[in-house]
Each structure stands twice: as structure tokens, then as C-alpha cells.
């Protein structure tokens, strides 16, 4: 009876509010991201500037998530911090409209991603605080589903706006403020804050050390997996090169983008489906480990160096499936392993571990692909991905 009550009540105003917030916020910054390379080229900045901008922004965001995770656990009210982060991201993204030099874009992007880092642990902690543990999978899965819908809508909106405005980048950037502020409004109006008991003051290092041992073991598995979890933008490059001999460079590039859209669609669906499934199996981490294993299979298929459009489509689908599963269930498992009063620190630490994994995997896979072979690159990736799945399944005690 208690289970029936939970299953009826998990989709509450906080879950809906966080989901809508993620949708609008991703819609905003993915619209800007879609046209950023072309805008930088228009103001005379090349690929090197794009690399610096994205690298600095991602690094700051990751560091901020770790710091904000510690800080949010010490606050009596987490909601104002998350609201501030969403507001900073919306306004900073819109500020690209006034940029005339690459360094100004760098400042805007870094500020936007700082806001993203500030809000992330607080948002996830608020979501977990208003949901029963037995529904974590569905709650975080729905949030990831709506986030991915926003990520799909962003580039499509950018293309439509460019056509309507005669490729006026400034007007497109200004438009991003609209969904950005809608994200702020959705969070403010819908998300509830559940009061928590007074928390003892801990130093930053003490906060990390006090995280439960099962969670730290989970971080090891997630970290090893992350070192093999290559950027999915590499899939676009892989498909473009594989299809170019038959379809030509321009057509191959268009097909690759279409395959990536397919990837995002399956990622959105698997985020909720895997989250739902994890709420009804004896151990949630088994579903996550299965997702990690699918990632390993995907890497092995990439080792074939295929030129088949059908096999490439299957690879993109599998990549979308494991990406959605990973995205939803890592947060769900973390929320389950850690007491609610330490959720901010847990989510911030997980984000930092994932950031280190992303950095290592990008260097490792990219270097091996360029210096050795595609088989060496994705074969190494597969070993790390399967190792992460094995470590996740180890007993927690």
C-alpha cells in the first residue's frame, strides 16, 4: 500500500518544476551553443578560441560544482542559491549579443558556466529532498528527459531564428534570455524546499571524508568508467569520416548531424525508462552497470571502423541509450547512498569526478585515435567502460 502511494505521488510540483527548469535552461544555452562557432568565425576568432572558451568554462563549472556542493549543505535554504545560478546563466548567455571580441565571449561563457556550477548541486539536492528514495530513478530520469528535450529544441530553434533574422547572431543570442528567464520562473514558482535539520559545521576536507564508504566506492567505478567515456562529439567526426567516401564531405556531415539527433532522441527516452526500471529492481546500480556495459559494446563496435550507414545508426542509438542511463542513474545512485543532509557534497563530488574523467577520456581517446589507430582508441575505451561496470557491481560493504 505504501508503495502504491509513493508511485502515485512521486510526480509532484518539485519534480515538475525542476524538469521544466532544466528544459528551458538547456533550450536557452543550447540555442547559443549551436551558433557559437559560426559567431566566433564572424568576429575573426578561430577554432583555438573556441577550444579555450569551452575548456575554461567547463573547468570553472566543474570546480564550482564541487565548492557549491560543500556550501549548499551548510545553508538553511538551498533554493535561493539555485535561483541565483539560473539567473546568472540566463543573463550571461544573453550577453553574447553585445560581444565584439572573443575575450568578451570567454567572459560571458565562463560566467554562464559558473552559474551552472553554482546551481547544480542545490537543484539536485532539492529534487532528492522532495521525493521518496523508491522513486529517485523516475524523478531524476524525468529531469534528464526534459533536459534532453531542451537540448534538442535548442539547435532547431537556432536554425529557425537564423533564417527568420537573416543570420543576425545578436538577435538569436538576445532571444536566449527568454527561455533562460522562464527557467528561473519555473524554479521559483514550482520547486518546494523541505526544511532539513541543523547541520554540524565541517571543513571542506572533512565534508569529503565524511561521505559514506559505499558512495566513495561508487565514485571509483564512475571515475574509471568516465576515463573511457569519450565525448559524443567524436561520434559525429567518426560518422562524417566513415561516410565521406560514399556520400561526399558535405552530405556525410549532414547525415552525421542527423544521426546525432537520433542519438539525442534515444538518450531522452532511455533517461526516463532506465530511471523507471531502476525503481523496481532489487539494486538500482545493476541498471546503471548494464548501461555502462552497453557503452563498452558501443566502443567495441566503433573498433570495426565500419562504413555502413545502418551499423553507424545502431552505434548512435546504443550511445544514446547508455548516455541517458548514465546521466539519470548516477545521480539516483548517489542520492540513495548518501544521507539527505550531505546530498550537496555528494552531487558536487560526483560532478568533479565526472569532469576529471571527461578530461582524461578526451585526451586519451583523441591521442590514441590520431597517433595509433581507431581500434587502439576505442579498444582502450571499451576496457575502461567494462571495468567501470564491474566496479559498480562490487558489493557496497
Write the layout of secondary structure elements.
Layout: H1 2-9, H2 13-42, H3 47-72, H4 79-94, H5 102-129, H6 136-164, H7 169-175, H8 177-190, H9 204-209, H10 213-228, H11 233-247, H12 249-278, H13 284-302, H14 309-337, H15 343-371, H16 374-392
Mind explaining what this structure looks like?
The structure is a single chain. With 397 residues, the protein is an all-alpha fold. It has 2 domains: 9-199, Growth Hormone, Chain: A (Up-down Bundle); 210-397, Up-down Bundle (Growth Hormone, Chain: A). It is 81% helix and 0% strand. It is built from 16 helices and no strands. The radius of gyration is 21 Å and the shape is globular. It starts with a helix and ends in a 5-residue tail after the last helix. The relative contact order is 0.15. Mean pLDDT is 87; it is low at 1-7.
Q: Can you summarize this structure?
A:
This protein is mostly helical. 81% of the residues lie in helices and 0% in strands.
What features would you highlight for this structure?
397 residues; mainly alpha; Growth Hormone, Chain: A; 2 domains; 16 helices; disordered N terminus
Amino acid at each position: 500500500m505504501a508503495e502504491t502511494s509513493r508511485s502515485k505521488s512521486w510526480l509532484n510540483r518539485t519534480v515538475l518544476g525542476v524538469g521544466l527548469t532544466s528544459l528551458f535552461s538547456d533550450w536557452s544555452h543550447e540555442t547559443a551553443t549551436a551558433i557559437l562557432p559560426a559567431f566566433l568565425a564572424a568576429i575573426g576568432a578561430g577554432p583555438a578560441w573556441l577550444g579555450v572558451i569551452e575548456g575554461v568554462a567547463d573547468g570553472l563549472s566543474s570546480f564550482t560544482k564541487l565548492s557549491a556542493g560543500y556550501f549548499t549543505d551548510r545553508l538553511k535554504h538551498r533554493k535561493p542559491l539555485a535561483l541565483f545560478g539560473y539567473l546568472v546563466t540566463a543573463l550571461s548567455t544573453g550577453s553574447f549579443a553585445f560581444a565584439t571580441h572573443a575575450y568578451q565571449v570567454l567572459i560571458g561563457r565562463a560566467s554562464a558556466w559558473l552559474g551552472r556550477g553554482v546551481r547544480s548541486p542545490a537543484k539536485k539536492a532539492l529534487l532528492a529532498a522532495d521525493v521518496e528514495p523508491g522513486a529517485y530513478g523516475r524523478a531524476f530520469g524525468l529531469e534528464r528527459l526534459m533536459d534532453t528535450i531542451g537540448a534538442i529544441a535548442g539547435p532547431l530553434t537556432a536554425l529557425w531564428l537564423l533564417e527568420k533574422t537573416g543570420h543576425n547572431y545578436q538577435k538569436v543570442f538576445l532571444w536566449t534570455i527568454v527561455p533562460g528567464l522562464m527557467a528561473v520562473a519555473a524554479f521559483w514558482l514550482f520547486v518546494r524546499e523541505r526544511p532539513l535539520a541543523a547541520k554540524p559545521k565541517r571543513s571542506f576536507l572533512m565534508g569529503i571524508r565524511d561521505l559514506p564508504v559505499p558512495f566513495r566506492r561508487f565514485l571509483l567505478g564512475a571515475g574509471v568508467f568516465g576515463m573511457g567515456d569519450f565525448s559524443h562529439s567524436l561520434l559525429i567526426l567518426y560518422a562524417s569520416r566513415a561516410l565521406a567516401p560514399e556520400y561526399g564531405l558535405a552530405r556525410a556531415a549532414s547525415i552525421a548531424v542527423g544521426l546525432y539527433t537520433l542519438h539525442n532522441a534515444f538518450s531522452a527516452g532511455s533517461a526516463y525508462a532506465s530511471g523507471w526500471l531502476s525503481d523496481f529492481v532489487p539494486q538500482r546500480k545493476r541498471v546503471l552497470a548494464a548501461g555502462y556495459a552497453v557503452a563498452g559494446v558501443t566502443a567495441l563496435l566503433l573498433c570495426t571502423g565500419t562504413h555502413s550507414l545502418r551499423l553507424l545508426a545502431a552505434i548512435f542509438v546504443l550511445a544514446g541509450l547508455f548516455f541517458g542511463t548514465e546521466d539519470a542513474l548516477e545521480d539516483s545512485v548517489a542520492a540513495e547512498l548518501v544521507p539527505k543532509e550531505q546530498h550537496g557534497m555528494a552531487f558536487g563530488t560526483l560532478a568533479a569526478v565526472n569532469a576529471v574523467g571527461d578530461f582524461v577520456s578526451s585526451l586519451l581517446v583523441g591521442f590514441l585515435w590520431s597517433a595509433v589507430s581507431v581500434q587502439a582508441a576505442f579498444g582502450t575505451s571499451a576496457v575502461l567502460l567494462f571495468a567501470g561496470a564491474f566496479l559498480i557491481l562490487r558489493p557496497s560493504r
